[in-house]
Specification:
alpha/beta; Malonyl-Coenzyme A Acyl Carrier Protein, domain 2; 4-stranded antiparallel β-sheet
Length: 308
Amino acid sequence: MTTAFVFPGQGSQSLGMLSSSASEVRGTFDEASEALGYDLWTLTQNGPEDTLNQTEFTQPALLTASVALWRLWAAEGGSADFVAGHSLGEYSALVASGSISLTDGVRVVQRRGQLMQEAVPLGQGGMAAVMGLDDALIDSACQRACDSIADGTVQAANLNAPGQVVISGTLEALQQASAFCEQAGAKRVVPLNVSAPFHSRLMKPAAEALAEMLSSVTFSDPDIPIVQNVPAGAAESVEAMIDHLVTQLYSAVRWRESIEYLKQAGVDRVVECGPGKVLTGLNRRIDREIKVFNLDSSALLPELKDFV
C-alpha cells in the first residue's frame, strides 16, 4: 500500500472550518498565531469572512488547518510515502515533510499572499475555469488573445484535471481568451472570484520578492518525498525545491501530471488533508483507479486508519 497525502490551496477555506476538531487542533493554531501576531483561530471561526478570504489571511489559515490535521494523523502513528500540495498547499506539504517549520511556513505564505495581491492592482486581472476543452485548444485560445490585445497576457494557470483548466491574465485578454475557448467548444467558461491573476507572468515581480524572503528561511531535506507543482515531480535538491517555489508563482500548477507521477511511483491511495474536498474531486477525475479519501476533521481519523 503506497499512500500520498495532498494538501489543498486557496478556495478550500470556509468560516468555521475545523470547528468540530477545536480541542485537537488549537495547539497548532496557537503556534501559528504567535508567529503571525494575531489570533488565527478566532479569525477562522468568527471572521469577518471578507478578511479570511483576503489572500494574505487565507494562505496562513489554510496552511495551519492542513498541518493541524496532518499532526493529528502523525500522532496516531500515521505516515505517508509522498506528499504534494496544490499551489499554496505545496507549503503545507513542506511543513508536513519536515522541510520547513510551521512558524516559517505561516510567515512565508502570509508574505506570499501580500506579494501576490500587490503585483497587480485590483480589477486589472483575473482567472477563469475552462470546462470540457482540450489543453491544446486552450493554449491556442490564450495565444490568440495575447496576439490580439496590446499589452495583454493570458495563460493556462492550473492544469487541474482532464477537461478542467484555469486560465489567468489581464482582464481584457482573459475575456478574449474565454470567448475563444467558448467558440472552440468549451462546455463552460466560468470567471473565478479571485483578487488577482495568480500563476501568470504578471506574478513575476512577486516571485522576485518571494525569492529574497525564502533566502532567509531554513530549509531541510524533506523526510517524505514531496512532489512539486512546477516539475510535476520531486526536486533533485533543496536548492531546486526552493527555485520551484519561486517559479510556481508565475507558472502553471500541473496537478493532473503530479497525480500521474504519483501513480507511476506506485501510489494507489491519495488522501486530501485539509478543509474542503476540492482535490478529492479532481483526483477522481484524473484517475479512478487510485482510491481517494478526504480528511477534513479529526473525527475521521479512526476511519482513515482503517482505510490506509
